[in-house]
Amino acid sequence: MPDMNGGYDHAQAEARIHDRLRSLALEATAILREDIPLFFEREARRRFVEAPPFAEAMTEERLKELKATLVRAGREAAEEATAGLRELEPWLAGHVQHEAATAGLEDNPTLWAIVTNSCARLGDILGSHDFPSDDPEGSYEVDYQAPRRFVSGLYMPTIAEKYWRSMADLKALDARRHRVETESQRTRLGKRWDST
């Protein structure tokens, strides 16, 4: 947006992009707040059903305890993830260029680490309930994927597309700022040369 001197108001343009990112963060956190607890239950159920000898040996009391733990831990993980995503800094860390039509939020490693770190506690729950392990070392690979369906009336791929467009806008703004600063510096140095 031109300022009163015919120039470009970088601060105002940047503030608009930051506001857009905050709005996208609110939408993404609404999805995650609902989907992460469901993921905990879905993933544990999948592993339970795929391990018949283990599942048959689990008592009803232990199964009820597991399900209650999953509900509580899923809510805690969702709150932890959404609290971290309310900050602007992880959103601004998306400095790697991606195609907006194909990139997801997981393509910003700083941002997505907040989500995956909160979901990692599911592995501890699986271990404490003696689920069969994913690997010979006894660890549990927990891989939360952003939902590709409507959740809370919102669609994460659309949010991701808007996010990467905002990152492209921010990069273009930075490039413009750099050009303006470079031109200004050259003009100043030229005047200094000419006046000496």
Q: What's the short version?
A:
With 196 residues, this protein is mainly alpha-helical.
What brief labels describe this structure?
196 residues; 69% helix; 2% strand; disordered N terminus
Description:
By secondary structure, this protein is mainly alpha-helical. The chain contains seven helices and two strands. It has helices spanning 10-49, 52-57, 60-85, 89-92, 109-119, 121-128, 156-195; strands at residues 150-151, 154-155. Strands 1-2 form a two-stranded antiparallel sheet. The longest helix is centred in the first third of the chain and has 40 residues, at 10-49. The chain is elongated. The model is unreliable at 1-6 (pLDDT under 50).
- What is the overall silhouette? elongated
Low-confidence blocks of residues: 1-6
- Helix content, binned percent: 55-70%
Total separate domains:
1
Largest sheet: 2 strands, antiparallel
Element-by-element helix/strand order: HHHHHHEEH
What's the SSE blueprint?
Elements: H1 10-49, H2 52-57, H3 60-85, H4 89-92, H5 109-119, H6 121-128, E1 150-151, E2 154-155, H7 156-195
Antiparallel strand pairs: 1-2
Helix pairs in contact: 1-3, 1-7, 3-5
